[in-house]
Amino acid sequence: MTKVLLASDANWVIDEVSAALSDPGTELKILRAGLEVRPAVSLSKPDLVILDLQIGNMGGIATCLDLRLESEVGRLPYVPVLILLDREADLYLAQQAKADGWLVKPIDAFRLKMAAVKLLSGEKMSAASEAPKIVSDGAPPVEEASDSDIEVASSP
């Protein structure tokens, strides 16, 4: 049985994650406060922790940092952490908190399931592999300019 711990105080996030990870081999425990995560990890020893970026009293970044610091000094086992980000710019914070993976909301059930499988198998997500893909809007492609293509006009 795979144990997953989700910390979020947003009902829609809880519903989306529950739906994406609902299968007979997964047990999902839901917490509504970041401060509850460390004791829950200590007691239940989950296989994966999923943190919403914004949790009322202690957000996902602070909670992830707390888990990493406790793990580094040997007070908690190392547990992979997936953070649900609000925007692409939050990726830097997730990396600094030593999160193993991240997804930008809105949550796509397939991407969430694949990220969970990847982290549970011991892989980490990299910024390059998770970079947003640019989707063509039908306009012709624009070539990138190199330094040799740039001309500097001199003033008279």
Helix and strand run: EHEHEHEHEH
Tell me the strand order in the biggest sheet. Answer: 2-1-3-4-5
CATH fold category name: Rossmann fold
Full CATH superfamily name: Response regulator
Count of DSSP H/I helices: 5
- Structural category: alpha/beta
The amount of beta strand, in percent, is 15-25%
Report Rg.
19 Å
Mean pLDDT across the residues is 85
Give the overall form. Answer: globular
**Unreliable residue runs:** 128-137, 144-156
How many separate domains make up the residues? Answer: 1
User: What is the straight-line distance between the termini?
Assistant: 75 Å
Q: In CATH, what is the class?
A: Alpha Beta
Tell me about the largest β-sheet: 5 strands, parallel
Give the tally of β-strands.
5
What percent of residues adopt helix (DSSP H or I)?
25-40%
- Overall CATH architecture: 3-Layer(aba) Sandwich
